[in-house]
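Example 5.3 — Acetate kinase
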Amino acid sequence: MKILIVNAGSSSLKFKLFEMPNEDVLASGEIERLNMPGSKVKIKYGDGEVYKEEQDKIDYEQSAGIMLNRLKDLNVIEHLGDIKAVAHRVVAGANVFDKVAEINDQTLKQIVDLGEIAPIHNPSEAKYIDIVASILPDVKQYAVFDSAFFHDVPEMNGQYGIPHELTEKFGIQRYGEHGINHTYITQEAMKMLGTDKADLVTLHLGSGSSIAAERDGKCYDTSMGYTPMNGLLMGTRAGDVDPALVPFLMKRMGASADEIIEMFNERSGMLGVSGISSDMRDLEESDDSRAKLALDMFLTRVIKYAASYITELDGVDAIVFSGGIGEHDEWVRSEVCKKLRWFGIKLDEEKNHAQQPGDMSAPDSKVKVFLIPADEEIAMVRDVFKYQN
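Solution (predicted structure tokens):
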């Protein structure tokens, strides 16, 4: 049974086609730098074959068409009808969804309505669902929710210090994001530790970034909040800001609340600070002082959250790096571990430079340092196949 997993992020589209139940990956691809110059397509398929393509400013609709059509063009499948199910990563399920859901008119409407919580994610994910449905009208589609992992967050970490009646009335709480990957890397880290009783800090660092604290496999705290805008400085998202800035900027700019939130989501973060790019690679190659400032701000916030979570957990057994930046940026890993050395964390710099997944700890490190590549797709396909059977 062929199941296509669609993982649409704020700046990239990842996908994998699985043959289940064997979990064989027939093809995997990524279209990165969406809506930016130099959008890149890369698809791995067959016996180590790689297809590459580059266009300027591939948008969401074009990327969905490329994803489906290239699978057929490259003879990964004979017909689009060979795909029997499609599963989408959906960021915000709030307290409406705590597990996989089959897409129908009602669930799609709920996903769209929850766009208020994830305005740069849920609407585009719903659009992908619509696009795929128009091309594969007879194929069942499913949603796997990032927020499901955070249902276990204790109330003291999940609630805000606002009047309790508003928390109850409007369901306002910390919903988090990247839960599918935090779940996956937590499970993998505990396998590497040989126990299911471990305290961890997991760092999903990419264009969208979040840090989570886990106790015995369950989320204890997370940097993202009611929306994915909270927490770390990100590619285009501001992260933590004083809420009083919203009315202040509305008055000074003559803007609406929605316009200010759009700015915080799409024109802030490393892009807004640097004025150059939202991509870490571009900033590291730049000599501009604002690019350096953006990097320093990103790094400082990662360190602040990681250190606070280690303290909150009374120490940890391991920290885990994942996500595009976490997996590929040795400088970030090195700097974070240097600042966390007071907790007994020590990175093996040779292993860090080699960037091989696995244990990157120095022999005398009191805390394990793991590099575990994100694999949200395998976590998703397992959930969907289990749901179907």
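Remark. The chain has 15 helices and 14 strands.
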